[in-house]
Every structure is written in structure tokens, then in C-alpha cells.
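Researcher: Last one for today. Full complex below.
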Amino acid sequence: MQGTLTTTGTLPQHVAIIMDGNGRWAKARGLPRTAGHRKGIEAVRRTVEAARELGIPYLTMFGFSSENWRRPEGEVFDLMQLLRFYLRSEIAELHKNGVRLRVIGDRSRLSGDIVTMIENAEELTRGNRELNLTIALSYGARQEIANAARQMVREALAGRLDPEDVTEESFSGRLLTRDIPDPDLLLRTSGEQRISNFLLWQLAYTELVFVDTLWPDFTKRDLEDAIREFNQRDRRYGAVGTR
Ligand code: IPE
Ligand code: IPE
Ligand code: MG
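Model: Here's the assembly. Have a good evening.
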């Protein structure tokens, strides 16, 4: 079933995407991996635009994992250059379109100039409401969870937190996603069916959709198809189903 989305389905409030398959896209064409990453940026642009057109309020995209630092130095360098290019060329447009940009991840490993661009973009777009775009960069969910635990232990040792007050809610409030609802739909491209250390806490009841499309080929149509698939799921949250 393809075509435009009907109004009968519910729109997920938060779509998270693991953008995978740039390297394979390039390899299939006899091109260097970086060519795939470059094409991948165009898919990011298309997808942000599509989410905005569809009226999805939250979109979170996995751009670079804490484990991706293990890639060859040259590839990491190229990815950072592309990130600079994306931030430099896209922020004005995002702002014009009412997009609020947030970045989650370990900023201490990113170059100073990139961190400055991120901070400026977050400040500039803070008041925007059209679409909440979160990009995960140098992000690892286990690290995020360990950091939240460390912070709570520190607060407890300083007498500012009673161990009884360590709850799901207070713990969520120490995660990088504290201002963002949990994803309703997680989409991963390229046929891989794994989470790769993305949003482990937040995905507890997220619907997972895996598609074979390689990220550089991803279009609005693929996003609409995934939303249709999402609409066929019966979200039970451990209770009794509605169908
Ligand atoms: C996703 O594409 C982009 C990043 C992880 C930065 P890959 O680079 O992982 O592409 P494949 O999985 O090797 O095809
Ligand atoms: C996950 O993709 C990270 C991003 C998409 C940024 P990877 O390609 O790094 O994941 P693995 O290595 O296949 O699990
Ligand atoms: Mg990959």
C-alpha cells in the first residue's frame, strides 16, 4: 500500500531514526564510503522536511555513535567535515522553517568549533515550535545512563537526593532527552535489525520498524510507509490489546 498518508491513522508524536547504510550505498557504486555519507546528508534534509510537512512534532536522528569513533581516522575526519558543512549550510534554513535543533551526545569528544556551532544553533532555534529535531552525535545510550546514575549518586552524597526518590521519572529527568517524550516509532534503514546503543532507556515501549532501504535512498515515501506500518501495530504496554 503506497501513496499519501490518510488522515485515519494516528501520527507518531516522536519518530527516531537510525540512519544506516551509507557505506554499502557507496560500495555498491564503487565509490568511497564518504560519497555515501555525502548522499546521506541529502536524505537528512529530505527527511526533516518530510517530518515537518507531515506534522510530526519530534524527530530524532542518530548521526554518529560513541562507537563510531572506532572507525578509521580518515572516515571520522570526513564525517566531522560533513557535520561542519551540514551545520553551516542548514541552520538558517532550519530556523526559517521553525525547527528547534537539539544535539545529544558526548560533546567533550567533538571539536571546539563544532561545539560552538551546536551551541549557537540551539540558542538561535530555542523558541521554534514547528518541529523538534534532535541529532545524536557522539551518542551512546549506556554512557548516557551511566552519567545519569553518577549524577544521582553525587546528589545523594551531597544530601540533595533521598535514595527513595530515585524513580523512573527522576531518572528520566537526568537523561539527555529530559525535555523530549519517548519515541513512538523507531526506524532503522539498511536491513540491520539492532539498536546499536541508541536510546536504550527511552525505547522501552517504542514500535520498531526495520526497512531494507539504504539511508541515502530514503525518501518521504519510506517515512510514510513506516508510519502506516506503525498504525497497524497494537500498542499494549503490557495490558490487554484493543483489537
Ligand atoms: C550510517 O552509515 C552512517 C554512520 C554510522 C555515520 P554507515 O557508515 O554505517 O554505512 P554501512 O552500515 O557501513 O553501510
Ligand atoms: C549506528 O550505525 C550508528 C548510526 C547510525 C550513527 P552503525 O553502522 O555504527 O551500527 P553497527 O556498527 O552496524 O551496529
Ligand atoms: Mg552501519
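Residues 18-20, 62-65, 68, 192, 194, 196 surround IPE (ligand 2) (CB under 6 Å). The chain is about 40% helix and 15% strand.
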